[in-house]
Specification:
The protein is of the alpha/beta class. Helix content is 31%, strand content 19%. A seven-stranded parallel β-sheet has the order 3-4-2-1-7-8-9, with helices on both faces. Helix 3 packs parallel to helix 4 and helix 4 runs parallel beside helix 5.
Length: 197
């Protein structure tokens, strides 16, 4: 990647997605190889009345460990954590995960904004935040907070997204560091991990 020298040293990645997100995440995370060292924390909007099967689906398709996030769980390197439906997911100062039942944000719980803002407070410039396809405005405010605190901000090109509303909402409020199609974001994550090693 030509701008690799300009990339920061990242310690964690947060990702938000909604409508079209399962396919986008499989495309994004599928190429990651065993031994990938960065933790990845994901909020994907799902109906909360159904049990999430994300862990099962992604465990079968990915070469890195996948877990559903649990309260007070320490964040481990090289693991993908999915938010539990019906609970906000946040990062605590001791770099553990926290589940809570605060009010919905943009009609969503878990909220992408909630995750992004808490992770930005903890990791600051060592955080990379990725906003993907989706049908509402969740994530734009959180991404702006990541940028304010020096983190790396990445938005899926709306023209590449299955549903452009969410990435376009972010572009309406900030100029992210990267606007890329999903395959470009995947290559960027690999490069960030290479720098982190």
């Amino acid at each position: 990647m030509s701008d690799a020298v300009a990339l920061p040293r990242i310690e964690a990645i947060v990702i938000g997605a909604s409508a079209g997100g399962v396919e986008a995440l499989l495309t994004l995370l599928g190429p990651l190889r065993p031994g990938f060292v960065l933790p990845i924390i994901v909020v994907l909007h799902l109906p909360q009345e159904r049990r999430s099967q994300l862990t099962e689906v992604f465990s079968r398709r990915l070469d890195i460990p996948v877990q559903e996030a649990s309260d007070k769980q320490n964040i481990a390197a090289g693991t993908v954590y999915f938010a539990t439906p019906g609970y906000h997911l946040s990062v605590e100062q001791d770099r553990s995960l926290s589940l809570s039942l605060e009010d919905r944000v943009h009609y969503s719980r878990p909220s992408i904004d909630y995750l992004f803002e808490s992770a930005a407070d903890v990791y600051g410039p060592a955080l990379a935040a990725v906003l993907l396809t989706g049908a509402n405005h969740d994530g734009a405010r959180g991404l702006a907070q990541v940028k304010r605190l020096g983190g790396l901000t990445i938005v899926q090109d709306p023209a590449d997204a299955q549903v452009a509303t969410m990435p376009q909402a972010a572009l309406n409020v900030l100029q992210p560091d990267h606007v890329l199609p999903i395959h470009g974001i995947g290559r960027l994550l690999v490069e960030l991990e290479r720098i982190a090693c």
